[in-house]
Write a structure and sequence with these properties.
alpha+beta; about 180 residues
Length: about 180
């Protein structure tokens, strides 16, 4: 596997790694064949990427190992560890079973796809105008998307002000989206 590809997927998911280890599994990336994700008890980031193993791996350690690796790495899951081979170098990391992860991945096939158009980009920029910048209030970070019969609603708040943008898009009749980005 190309190191750069795996590292890019992990960096996208890394904001959802918990910074404290009082619940150790929250500091891990969880791999599930075609996706990798992280969850910090407030938000989850799921990245679709063919990874192979089905386990949870210590996040910060894995990021550091891959940052120092060559162009190609081989990642294999053994009984209680993951083995990362880079040329002649071999690193072993302890793993937890995928079932130890405290986040159930939603069925992504049941979701909807919305093209990232110029109109959507403008709505995101507008809606993000008053999103919170203090990381201590993570629930106020980002933009929340919600669907309705009118189209796609985009909201954000810093707990003092609120913005809402409405994008008129064709959505499937039973489409439901409630997520933050």
């Amino acid at each position: 596997m190309k190191t750069k590809t795996l590292l890019r997927a992990l960096k996208v998911a890394s904001p959802a790694l918990h910074h404290r280890d009082f619940v150790p599994i929250l500091t891990h990336f969880c791999f599930d064949e075609d996706r990798v994700f992280a969850y910090d008890d407030k938000s989850a980031v799921i990245v679709l990427e063919e990874t192979g193993p089905k386990c949870a791996v210590p996040g910060r350690a894995l990021l550091q190992i891959l940052a120092d690796a060559g162009e190609e790495v081989k990642v294999e899951q053994e009984k209680n560890e993951i083995v990362i081979t880079d040329g002649d170098g071999v690193v072993r990391l302890p793993i937890l079973g995928k079932d130890a992860f405290v986040f159930d991945v939603p069925d992504l096939d049941a979701g909807i796809e919305i093209e990232l158009s110029e109109a959507l980009t403008k709505c995101l920029d507008f809606a993000a105008a008053c999103s919170n910048v203090e990381t201590i209030r993570a629930e106020l970070l980002g933009v929340t998307l919600k669907t309705s019969r009118d189209g796609l609603h985009l909201y954000s708040t810093d707990n003092k002000t609120c913005t809402r943008a409405l994008l008129d898009v064709e959505l499937p009749p039973k489409a439901k989206v409630a997520t933050s980005i």
